[in-house]
Design brief:
The complex is a heterodimer. Chain A is of the alpha+beta class. Chain A contains six helices and seven strands; from the N terminus they run ββαβββαααββαα. Chain A has a five-stranded antiparallel sheet, with helices on both faces. A two-stranded antiparallel sheet of chain A has the order 6-7. The radius of gyration of chain A is 21 Å and the shape is globular. By secondary structure, chain B is of the alpha+beta class. In chain B, 57% of the residues lie in helices and 9% in strands. In chain B, strands 3, 4, 5, 6, 8 and 10 form a six-stranded antiparallel sheet that branches. In chain B, strands 13, 14, 15, 16, 17 and 18 form a six-stranded antiparallel sheet that branches. In chain B, α9 runs antiparallel to α10, α22 packs antiparallel against α23 and α43 packs antiparallel against α44. About 22% of the residues of chain B have low confidence. The chains are: A alpha+beta, B alpha+beta. At the A-B interface, β2, α1, β3, α2 and α4 of A face α1, α2, α4, α6 and α8 of B. Chain A: Belongs to the adaptor complexes small subunit family. Chain A: Keywords: Cytoplasmic vesicle, Golgi apparatus, Membrane, Protein transport, Transport. Chain A: It comes from Gasterosteus aculeatus aculeatus (three-spined stickleback). Chain A: InterPro entries: AP_complex_ssu (IPR016635), AP_mu_sigma_su (IPR022775), APS3 (IPR027155), Clathrin_sm-chain_CS (IPR000804), Longin-like_dom_sf (IPR011012). Chain A: Pfam families: Clat_adaptor_s.
Chain lengths: 198, 1263
């Protein structure tokens, strides 16, 4: 089982977190606990040279001798998988490679910015690779195909991010200086009636 | 400025999307938190709007914020709203958010059940997929129970994309709802041979995950996995299977033997390192499991070690790491083969990679011997000096101690060396493991008597130089060592060279800066030392020395009396007063030394750490019972300084019992033992503090011996252990020379016929004798200690619940809950419910235990067939007895099916077990290629199988079992396929069979319970499946017992009847596009999906390959239930051959009897009486003549076919009750005399009653 997948950059900023196990804590909220785990993992991983092995005995929070951190470092990003002993170490390393290559295909030359701005899409891609902590698909073409079909489905529904973004950019591109300067918007509360007909 | 405001508000008007949010956060690096809090406010506004697009956008942003660590649980309900959007785009966002922030304690999860169910059955496969993915992350026990059945159907979905997701999620469902494992397992097993590789891989994944925790239940799958292993080319699947075999082999050594060959082949042939590594790992597991039985696998071990060496030597750090990891597994059983690679492993200790160094350290642990221990430790000590990180150094420290202390100091030949190593380790800066070193020092000093003189000298040096350890803050951890040093010097003070000096060292003012618990030990042991010093000084003529010592104590102790630590203070003031008194006596020239020494008299024996746990509880002692009333507040405060308290307490008692007489002493000891047994805190003290003094009888004098130490090691900070290594080597050399001399002498005496190999070869283990006679005191155990080792399994482990026997045939009670059942359950009165449950749970338990026993026997004596045969007969009887509770055949078709099925499960079951045995015992040596291996194996297997089958199986079922056996062996694909389908059919039939049992058990079982306790005669089988229509193509069977009315509140309008129809393909062609249509009457209507016309047919949601049967359910709405209904219907379908396809149709008549509107509802007898008294019910009666059945059969029939339950039964008279789906009460009073049965009935609806009675009459006229 994969217990968690963490992606963060060289400074420890999380770019994607995916916990397949609930880590309850007596005092901490779920989110705080997760952030602690990220910090600890980053601390463990970041001080390692690039030419040492990619396996690490689990940190104290994610716990237990059965757990292992398996990670890869790509340019500015760390991809860390926390797994238990039922997973093959080298297999998971391959899986990370598959995942990253899939990202590369879907985003066309993926870089950290893609992950920053499209966290949701990265999640959708990951969902086709790992499900509930278990490896779902390892064939890259199959993964890409499924992701694309779903993207098309989204587009056929009118798209999600497209609509509001279009509107916003339209407003932003309006020639603002031409708007009369003396309009006092003040405390008038502008209510958006309904945005559905986008 | 104004413009900015305008722009800002317009921005807000049109909602930030995720990208804008991210951009915003990046632009507000300085006041990120503030910016995000405004964003959250905006999101809250957006969530209040009705527009789902706005909501989805907000939820998407929340998911991002959740990643940054913000709590978003307040939006849980909005997430559920977005999940329920009909658009895939939004649904996906909702499920993503849910999977990120829902967990088991999120309460809105219970609102999602119906939504998820809807999504699971959505026509759009991606809706289903998204729901499955989301569910896999937040499934709860409730969701798992409610949705298990839906997910199970998805496992046979037409799209592989859904199938593989459904298969994977089943693992999560099993974890949360273990009851689903057995019903779902057959289908999961089927998926191992799914045509789609993704689905297959998912199934392998799930089963491996299950088997890893409870391997023994999956042994029977070994042949199947073996086949997969030799045929699959997918490395992922192979890795998983090979890992699984690694878990299975310890349970079945024969499996290991079979595996070695193909695995070795894989090792030689594969190019994938991951696969190679797993193969090596599993071969190691096999070798471990075989190590006792089969010594002749040195070739395989060599191969593994050799491959691992290649991995370790590889430049890839990952391979190096894994190589070391696997090496450590070999080490456990074959240490010799690893030891030859010591050079390589020591080399890894110098690796720059910490993970690798740690792994190498692990290996060293197993590689030490008496011979090389010193050498290895020396090397490690060098590393300790070099290591920069504290964690690694700490790790080294613990490893050194582990290596030396393992198996009771087995490898230490020179304890002086070890003590000096420990002393050297105290020079480590900033280690956390001071206590570890301390406990080692204590342990060695206590258990090795011969070393005490040396240890005391070393400890005295340590105490003298204590300032080195207390000096700076960084060394905090290490001052724990002083605890041990002080104690050893005090306890064994008779060995001290210069006790006065040590005493002075212990009373330095600097000591007051040490932690409290150490100070306490200092004070206590200063008193012991004082006693010794006194003793030695009193012997002299000069009495002033003794008085000076007392004076020293009196001067120094007040410092401790002022201590903030209670423990220190108490001890110090106590001892101070004592010394003052002694001083007084001294001034009167009284000899006091003897008496003072008596204070601390006694021998000390170590006690095993587990000793306390192993004390057997005396008979008649209930540890859980309160002795007194529970105390109002806990006493835990007293026990805080546990470690010291436990020890010192006994010491105090020692001071007392010099005066107390023996009997009183024994009594007190008893009391204390009791106290300790009842004190939960007592056990918790660390092992080192558990050393309890054994009371020495009387006052035994311990002579004070002056020892002159020859080893001048007073200067701390000198690497002295090296000297011991040298000394040791010299000693060994000497010994060897001496031995040689002896040998020569012997040889001379004997005439020297043989050459001794010892001369040339390296010295063997036994040659090294310990430096001095080391008497390692064994740890004490209580009398009658229980030998059992504690089971360390975590009781909270969710996998424990999944330890379920999967080979056992499914019992009636095991069925995944379908929604309809819950409504029926709700109607049950609680008492009856409990009873029924108890009965149900009793049944399978009995069976399973019996079966397990049998299985064991089977395994043990799989050759003794005659016995087996008998057993199986017994087995079948059990099986039948159970079956009889359930059903009786109506038509001839059902009857034949029934009997065949009654026999099939046990046969299949035993077949499977013996099958595995057979498969394992028949381990041929496979030829070179794997393909050929399976082929070759298949042929003889088949022959023998048919040869032995008649012996091992009941004679009447050879057809059923034989194909199964051959099926497993046969590698010819076509044949297998056919047979598989046959099997499938069997399985499906079986399933349905159980299904119907389930429905009947409400009536059937209860009637037995209430009515037929005394009668032994079994009930005839009953079934309410009846033939609906049949043609040459298809057979339709109907089961109509299954009603539901969703909500009890609106019984009047929402009455539904669910009809289960089984379609069985009787021809050789494929049946598809089946449409089921019924001509609606005014009263009854087929429920059709929204938007379809009143005459449209319903599409049957599956296709039927030849020979397959499947079940579909149709829901009818019924207005009035007082009259029976007949509905005409047609089934249209396409018969598809290889070359042609034709439309066919089949007419049928659906008959809804009034009984089918009744629901088995239990009723209390007093409620029943009230109902009859109420006077609302109309009366009617009927007489049946010529009924020859026993009374309980009769009741069972009424219960089963007409859904009544027995309220009360007295002799040949019984009252029965049922309720219609619209809430009509129906009460019966059944009386029998001779062959006449009279039924008096009451109901609030006379028409209904009349019809029900007619139907009952008909039931009995038929037989």
């Amino acid at each position: 089982m994969i217990k968690a997948i963490l992606i963060f950059n060289n400074h420890g900023k999380p770019r994607l977190i995916r916990f397949y196990q609930y880590f309850p804590h007596v005092f901490l909220q779920t989110e705080d606990m997760q952030q602690q785990i990220i910090r600890e993992t980053f601390h463990l991983v970041s001080k390692r040279d690039d030419n040492v092995c990619n396996f690490l005995e689990g940190g104290s929070l994610i716990g237990g001798s059965d757990y292992k951190l398996i990670y890869r470092h790509y340019a500015t990003l760390y991809f860390v998988f926390c797994v238990d002993s039922s997973e093959s170490e080298l297999g998971i390393l391959d899986l990370i490679q598959v995942f990253v290559e899939t990202l590369d295909k879907c985003f066309e030359n993926v870089c950290e910015l893609d992950l920053i701005f499209h966290m949701d899409k990265v999640h959708y891609i990951l969902q086709e690779v790992v499900m509930g902590g278990m490896v779902l698909e390892t064939n890259m073409n199959e993964i890409v195909a499924q992701v694309e079909v779903q993207n098309r489905l989204e587009k056929s529904e009118g798209g999600f991010s497209a609509a509001p973004a279009r509107a916003v950019s339209a407003v932003k591109n309006m020639n603002l200086p031409e708007i009369p300067r003396n309009i006092n918007i003040g405390d008038i509360n502008i209510k958006v009636p309904s945005l559905s007909p986008f | 400025m104004a413009l900015k405001i305008v722009k800002g508000s317009i921005d807000r008007m049109f909602d930030k999307n995720l990208q804008d949010l991210v951009r915003g956060i990046r632009n507000h690096k300085e006041d990120e938190a503030k910016y995000i809090s405004t964003c959250i406010d905006e999101i809250k506004q957006e969530l209040k709007q009705d527009n789902i697009a706005v909501k989805a956008n907000a939820v998407c942003k929340l998911t991002y914020l959740q990643m940054l660590g913000y709590d978003v649980s307040w939006a849980a309900f909005n997430i559920v709203e977005v999940m329920s959007s009909s658009k895939f785009t939004y649904k996906r966002i909702g499920y993503l958010a849910a999977s990120q922030c829902f967990h088991e304690s999120t309460d809105v999860i219970m609102l999602t059940t119906n939504q998820i169910r809807k999504d699971l059955s959505s026509p759009n496969q991606y809706d289903t997929g998204v729901a499955l993915t989301g569910l896999s992350c937040f499934v709860t026990p409730d969701l798992a129970r409610d949705l298990a059945n839906d997910i199970m159907t998805l496992m046979s979905h037409t799209k592989p994309y859904i199938r593989k997701k459904a298969v994977l999620i089943m693992y999560k469902v099993f974890l949360k709802y273990p009851e689903s494992l057995r019903p779902a397992f057959p289908r999961l097993k089927e998926k191992l041979e799914d045509p789609d590789p993704g689905v297959q891989s998912a199934a392998v994944n799930v089963i491996c995950e299950l088997a890893r925790r409870n391997p023994k239940n999956y042994l029977s799958l070994a042949p199947l996995f073996f086949k997969l292993m030799t045929s699959s080319t997918n490395n992922w699947v192979l890795i998983k299977i090979i890992k699984l075999f690694g878990a299975l082999t310890p349970l079945e050594p024969r499996l290991g033997k079979k595996l070695i060959e193909p695995l070795t082949n894989l090792i030689h042939s594969t190019s994938a390192m991951s696969l190679l590594y797993e193969c090596v790992n599993t071969v190691i597991a096999v070798l471990i499991s075989l190590s006792s039985g089969m010594p002749n696998h040195s070739a395989s071990i060599q191969l593994c070690v050799q491959k691992l060496r290649i991995l370790i030597e590889d430049s890839d750090q990952n391979l190096k790491y894994l190589g070391l990891l696997a090496m450590s597994k070999i080490l456990k059983t074959h240490p010799k083969s690893v030891q030859s690679h010591k050079d390589l492993i020591l080399q890894c200790l110098d690796d720059k990679d910490e993970s690798i160094r740690l792994r190498a350290l692990d290996l060293l642990y197993g590689m030490v011997s008496k011979k090389n221990l010193m050498e290895i430790v020396k090397k490690l000590m060098l590393h300790v000096d070099k290591a920069e990180g504290t964690t690694y150094r700490d790790e080294l420290l613990t490893k050194i101690i582990d290596i030396c202390s393992q198996s009771n100091y087995q490898y230490i030949t020179n304890f002086e060396w070890y003590i000096s190593i420990l002393v050297e380790l105290t020079r480590l800066e900033g280690t956390r493991h001071g206590h570890l070193i301390a406990s080692q020092m204590l342990d060695v000093a206590i258990r090795v008597k011969a070393i005490r003189v040396f240890a005391v000298a070393q400890m005295a040096t340590l105490l003298d130089n204590a300032h080195l350890m207390t000096g700076n803050v960084q060394r905090k951890g290490i001052c724990e060592v002083l605890y041990a040093a002080a104690w050893i010097c005090g306890e064994f003070s008779e060995h001290l060279e210069n006790p006065t000096q040590t005493l002075e060292a212990m009373l330095r003012p600097k000591v007051a800066t040490l932690p409290g618990h150490i100070q306490a030990v200092y004070v206590q042991n200063a008193a012991k030392l004082f006693a010794t010093v006194l003793k030695s000084q009193e012997g002299n003529t000069d009495s002033t020395a003794a008085q000076e010592t007392s004076q020293l104590m009196i001067e120094r102790l007040p410092l401790f009396v002022q201590s903030a630590n209670l423990e220190v203070q108490e001890r110090a003031s106590c001892i101070l007063q004592l010394v003052k008194y002694i001083q007084k006596l001294q001034q009167k020239d009284v000899e006091v030394a003897e008496e003072v020494i008596a204070l601390f008299d006694g021998e000390l024996n170590p006690v095993a750490p587990k000793a306390q746990k192993k004390v057997p509880v005396p008979e008649g002692l209930d540890l859980d019972a309160w002795i007194n009333e529970p105390p109002s507040e806990s006493e835990s405060e007293d026990d805080q300084p546990k470690a010291i308290f436990a020890k010192e307490e006994t010491k105090h008692s020692r001071t007392r019992h010099t005066e107390v007489d023996e009997k009183e002493l024994a009594k007190r000891r008893e009391v204390r033992k009791q106290e300790q047994a009842n004190n939960p805190f007592y056990i918790k003290a660390s092992p080192s503090s558990q050393k309890v003094y054994q009371e020495a009888p009387g006052v035994e004098h311990i002579p004070v011996v002056q020892i002159d130490l020859s080893v001048p090691l007073k200067v701390p900070g000198l690497p002295m252990s090296d000297q011991y290594v040298k000394l040791e080597e010299e000693r060994r050399q000497k010994e060897r020379v001496e031995k040689k001399k002896k040998d020569k002498k012997k040889r001379k005496e004997k005439g020297g016929g043989r050459r001794k190999k010892r001369d040339s070869g390296p010295e063997s283990e036994e040659d090294i004798t310990p430096a001095h006679m080391v008497d390692i005191v064994t740890e004490e155990m209580p009398e009658n200690a229980l030998p059992s080792d504690d089971d360390d399994k975590d009781p909270n482990d969710p996998h424990k619940a999944l330890d379920i026997d999967l080979d056992k045939p499914l019992a009636d009670s095991e069925k995944l809950p379908v929604r309809s059942h819950r409504a029926a359950e709700a109607l049950k009165s609680p008492a009856e419910d409990g009873e029924a449950e108890a009965a149900a749970s009793l049944e399978p338990k009995k069976k399973s235990s019996k079966e397990k026993r049998e299985k064991k026997k089977d395994k043990e004596k799989d050759r003794k067939k005659s016995k087996d045969d008998k057993k199986k007969k017994k087995h079948r009887r059990v099986e039948k007895g159970e079956d009889l509770l359930g059903g009786q055949a109506d038509g001839p078709v059902a009857q034949s099916e029934e009997t065949s099925e009654a026999a099939a499960p046990p046969a299949a079951n035993t077949a499977e077990v013996s099958d595995l045995d057979f498969w394992l015992s028949n381990a041929p040596v496979p030829p070179n290629t794997q393909e050929a291996a399976t082929l070759a194996e298949a042929a003889p297997a088949h022959e023998t199988a048919s040869g032995t089958a008649p012996d091992s199986e009941p004679d009447d079922e050879p057809k059923d079992t034989e194909p199964e056996e051959t099926d497993k062996k046969s590698s010819k694909h076509k044949k297998k396929k056919q047979k598989k389908e046959k099997e499938d059919k069997e399985k499906k039939k079986k399933k349905k069979h159980h299904h119907h049992h389930h429905h009947s058990d409400g009536g059937g079982e209860e009637s037995v319970q209430n009515g037929t306790m005394e009668e032994e005669e079994p009930l005839p089988p009953m079934s309410n499946y009846c033939l609906l229509a049949e043609s040459s193509y298809i057979k339709m069977m109907i089961e109509d017992t299954n009603q539901e009315n969703d909500i009890q509140g609106n019984l009047q309008d929402g009455s539904q009847v669910v009809v289960s129809v089984i379609f069985e393909n009787k021809c050789d062609s494929f049946l598809k596009s089946m449409e089921f249509n019924v001509l609606d009457s005014l009263n009854s209507k087929l429920q059709r999906p929204e938007g379809s016309g009143p005459h449209d047919g319903l599409t049957v949601p599956f296709q039927l390959p030849p020979g397959v049967s499947n079940e579909a359910r149709f829901v009818f709405t019924v207005q009035s239930i007082v009259m029976p209904q007949k509905l005409k219907g047609t089934l249209t379908f396409i018969v598809k051959n290889e070359d042609s396809s034709t439309h066919e149709k089949l007419d049928f008549k659906l008959h809804f009897t009034c009984s089918s509107y009744l629901i088995t509802t239990p009723c209390y007898s007093d409620a029943f009486a009230k109902l009859l008294e109420s006077g609302d019910l109309k009366c009617s009666s009927v007489r049946l003549e010529g009924v020859s059945q026993p009374f309980h059969h009769l009741l069972a029939r009424i219960c089963f076919h007409h859904h009544f339950s027995v309220v009360e039964r007295v002799d040949s008279c019984a009252s029965m009750y049922s309720r219609s789906i619209q809430g009509h009460h129906v009460c019966l009073l059944v009386k029998t005399s001779g062959q006449t049965v009279s039924i008096d009935a009451k109901c609030d609806e006379p028409t209904l009653l009349g019809n029900v009675l007619d139907e009952i009459k008909q039931t009995f006229s038929q037989c």
